[in-house]
Amino acid sequence: MQTIRSILFYIVFLLATLVHSSLCLLVSPFISVHKRFRFVRLLNYFVIWWFGVCCGVRYRVEGLDNLSGVEAGILVSNHQSEWETFYLQTLVSPLCTVLKKELLMIPFFGWALALIKPIAIDRRLRVSALKQIVEQGTQKLQDGFWVLIFPEGTRVQPGRHKKFSKTAALLAMETGRPIIPIAHNAGQCWPGKGFLKHSGILRVVVGPPIYPQDKGLDELYAQSRDWVELNRDRLTRENQPV
């Protein structure tokens, strides 16, 4: 059953991506970037819904009130799968994601993704990538965009750890905007590597804003990192696929 569900999920997912991306390419020349973002992320809502229905996944989201009344800030999340790259786009609007530039080369999906102007970096060039994120991220925040950063830089399997970068803390120090830490256990239901999807409870926790005022870079970095790691590990322990 797990295999059948996974196959069915991907068939519909790929067809929906092809159709929606094509529509985005047709519509985008006639609408603003803000409206374009809302149109592009319609696919995100569908993928989240379809994954839950097809693969037997239930969702629990805590702490959404921590986003209320906050000026556009910096979302910082652990990275375990593709699911959170879809879901986090639905939390706030408009949103600019820091991602590897290779994603923009994927036919249709990448072309549509490029329409919402993400910060696309070359991860091999660490120094220039960091400078690019701070410069473009500052401009995006000034333009009213939220910025999403995955500080691990790549997908990490549940139960494993990878050092966080200080990129989000640097951007927060530069702009004075808050970091909103987010933790989830998406990799337990939608593994970052492998074809099969698992039924279960997928949980997301949004933490309180962490403001850079009266903090040094290392303190801000440690506070946001520790919050994400603590809650990520807690969700992993408490939730297992059924």
Structure description:
By secondary structure, the protein is of the alpha/beta class. It has a single domain (2-238), classed as Glycerol-3-phosphate (1)-acyltransferase (3-Layer(aba) Sandwich). The protein contains eight helices and seven strands. The longest helix is centred in the first third of the chain and has 26 residues, at 2-27. 39% of the residues are buried.
Number of helices: 8
Count of distinct structural domains: 1
User: Any idea of the CATH class?
Assistant: Alpha Beta
Strand content: 5-15%
Distance between the termini: 13 Å
Which structural class fits the helix and strand makeup?
alpha/beta
Overall mean pLDDT: 94
User: What is the overall shape?
Assistant: globular
Q: Which parts are unreliable, with pLDDT below 50 for 5 consecutive residues or more? A: none
Overall helicity: 40-55%
CATH architecture annotation: 3-Layer(aba) Sandwich
CATH topology: Glycerol-3-phosphate (1)-acyltransferase
**Total beta strand runs:** 7
